[in-house]
Design goal:
This protein is α+β, with helices and mostly antiparallel strands. Helices cover 38% and strands 34% of the residues. A hairpin with a 2-residue loop joins strand 6 and strand 7.
Length: 186
Amino acid sequence: MKWNRIALVEYDAKTIALVVASIVVLFIAVMIREHINTKKGETGEDLAKVREVLKRLLPDYASYTTAYALYKNKTYRGRSTTTTYAHYAIAFKPGALFVVPIKYSGGEVSWQGSGALLTKDNLSRVDNDVMGTVLFGLDGKELCRFDVMAGYTKQDKYEPFNIQQKPEWEAYKSFIDGFMREVNGR
């Protein structure tokens, strides 16, 4: 059986062009969506909802810097992947970190429990690296872990916030270094 090499080459060129064009269109669509979500985050609407939770739970709210934090962890088991998410409203000032788990549903932010005010008196250790912050109770067990970033954009129902918080992120970086030294005694 003889193959028509010219037809095969043309078919491959057309297929390659179609695949490349599809990838370019998809890339442009994703970039436009990210830009729109970043602009939505700059309005501060979602961050205001997070702050409202902190205002309700933290009596001296005005003396704290507030931010949104996310924990995202992927676990690989053979061919399957499980991703775990946790969302937090945090407030911090020298010597104190207030953390409350939050949920986002139907455009509203709600909270779970009353939150925890963490200090060197009720923490045994604080770790902070490129993966985020990990807080340990006096018994040495992990209490929670999260990362504070300059910006978040809505990806899906598991990452629902459009938040841009560069000043809060910079303040948190300064805070956590001092808080870690204070708690860890270094």
